[in-house]
Amino acid sequence: MLTDVWTSLMLVWITCVPYTSMTPIISQSKSLQTGSTALLRGLVEGQRILSRAKRGWVWNQMFVLEEFSGPDPILVGRLHTDLDVGSTPIKYVLAGEGAGTIFAINEITGDIHAMKRLDREEKAEYTLTAQVTNRDTDQPLEPPSEFIIKVQDINDNPPQFVEGPYRASVPETSQVGTSVTRVTATDADDPVYGNSAKLVYSILEGQPYFSIDPNTAIIKIALHGMDREMREEYLVVIQAKDMGGHMGGLSGTTTVTVTLTDVNDNPPKFSKSLYEFVIPEDLAIGQPGGKVKANDRDIGENAKSTYNIIDGDERDVFEITTDAQTQEGILRLKKPLNFETKKSYTLKVEAANIRFDPNSGAPFKDTATVKIAVEDSDEPPVFSKPTFVLQVDENAPINTVVGTVTARDPDVTGSLVRYFIDRHTDLERQFNVNVDDGKITLAKPLDRETDMWHNITVTATEIRNIQCHWNHSQISRATVAIRVLDINDNAPEFATEYEAFLCENGKPGQVIQTVSAVDKDDPIQGHYFEYRLIPEMLNNPNFTIKNNGDNSISVLAKHDTFRRQKQEMYFLPIIVTDNGNPPMSSTNTLTIRVCGCSREGIVQSCNVEAYVLPIGLSMGALIAILACIILLLVIVVLFVTLRRHKNKPLIIKDDEDVRENIIRYDDEGGGEEDTEAFDIATLQNPDGINGYLPRKDIKPDLQFMPRQSSGPNGVDVDEFINVRLHEADNDPTAPPYDSIQIYGYEGRGSIAGSLSSLETASSDSDQNYDYLREWGPRFRRLGELYSVGESDKET
């Protein structure tokens, strides 16, 4: 039986040979039953044949098959059952991984073939199931049996550097044996079977600079004193070979780019030992006067240097700084140069690395000499001092000399200097300056009370040659501050316009007002004012003044009999004199009003009319009462006006002047869109109104009984309107109202005279209308009408 064949542990080693020469498969049963002794002898014989083929035995329920790449199918093995005696129609069935695609079975003989290339790196083993069924009914004759086909590895994959190519770096001048980097290669073959995946590393290119460990693949420095400045980059080719490096093994290569990183092993070096510069004496402070540079073969931070002046005459005149971008030393001016004082300078400049290795022992610095020649320049005039402070009296006359400014030409030529005032600083042209000697004079009168200080700018320009051409490019400036000194030219006056209030019930000696004065002048010793009444008021019976000792006075009342009815206002002239030289004085008038005050002395009213007001009522209360009276009067007037307008008749009857009356209405009909003025539903349903709606426009004199609608439904609209018209004609309260208008007035001034007989005692029969024909064409028709009437009467 098939079960007896597959349940035992066995190994069948199949030699990869063509299908036609393949040795039949040898099977071993799990338990040998009756009739199976021949199969067992065949198994032993098969084992003896395989042993002669030098194949190893692996006792497992599997087949071992080497991976192959040939185009022909390979016999894997053969299935057999004791039921296959020729009389029973049996069929061998294969199922599982790769069944029908990779592996195929002969349904009759049970031969299993590998139809496609087997690659252990893709799949190392396959699990399959075999079963015997009836060919006619497909019914299973035996239970299924499971077995494994294992793919045996062969050396068919070369080593690969998955992470390559590599880049590495190592400091220059590194010691021999310094590790640079490590490379790694992989082999897809089975690492546990044979030497297919055993790798050995070697260098194909890169000697004698680098070496590699054959087992660890660590790349190391092999040459002493490798200098980056000589060669910075190296290309190393690495090979990995399997089979332990023996002949016949597969190999793979990669590249490693090794870069030597910089170390500070080179000092800075000036390109020349002596630098010479020519600097103009008018070079501005902080401006560059020259550049020096020390070259360094290193790069990056190792090449950065700093520059210093370590020796030389007057080293504080110059300074040297480092340009971070170009690594140049910039020579700058710290103090002004003067060709007339010193014409040359000699400096010693040092360049030193910022970073250096103290263990190297090398001097990482260099020095150079710098010689500077000062060039003479055409300099602007120089004032004796930058600021001049002058003084002048405010009453100084025109052309008074205020002061003098001086400047000189610092050049060797010693050119003449001319002076000018910058008129942007003297817009009112208060001052002038002498162009030759710099004397500043007064051009307009000054007033200290308007401007105490005047700040002007004076410019100095040199004359270039004897033709007196001014060098406008060389101009210097100086500030002149002119202080205006005060003189006593302003009289003192009251600090404000005072208005004093005096209570009628005041006491004698009561202070009415405190008065102080101001003076626009500013004397050195300060202000002192003297107050006095004018001579005409020295014996004033009402008021007197008292000096308070602080440049102010108090005005006092002499009695308590002041009354508003007698005199409401008093004027008190006071003379104020200052202590200037000469003294100045002015007369100021103090206005004093007599007021009614409360018992506490609080001012309540200061006019005569207020005196006759009832005692006990304040001004606010009186104003409120007056406002109420005016409001009541306005209400009464409005009421009367409305009453008169309401009782005005619609018909004007005037015996003296009766003329045509025209009544205008502002109301305008809404047209077709007006659906509210008239209820059209009434016409559509005349029987809808059953009640009486009283009129609201007038009060009827007669009471009219409402009409009772008794007509049948569906009354004609025309009949309904006629009924309503009849009711309106008989309703005296319904508009329009019948009225008679009497016209007894006729216009005057017409050359035709009167056409009316109202003012004549004659009748129509006594009138002669023949004159109408004489009035012209306009009255011709009228004359014909009246003429016809006369003819008819005569007839």
Automatic annotation (TrEMBL):
Q: Which InterPro entries match?
A: Cadherin (IPR039808), Cadherin-like_dom (IPR002126), Cadherin-like_sf (IPR015919), Cadherin_CS (IPR020894), Cadherin_Y-type_LIR (IPR000233), Catenin-bd_sf (IPR027397)
What the protein does comes down to: Cadherins are calcium-dependent cell adhesion proteins.
In the UniProt record, the signal sequence range is 1-22
Question: Transmembrane residues, as ranges?
Answer: 611-640
SMART domains attached here?
A: CA
Matching Pfam families, A to Z? CADH_Y-type_LIR (PF01049), Cadherin (PF00028)
Record flagged with keyword Cell wall biogenesis/degradation = no
Report what the protein is called: Cadherin 8
State the source organism's domain of life. Answer: Eukaryota
> Can you give the residue ranges of the Cadherin domain?
81-161, 162-270, 271-383, 384-494, 494-616
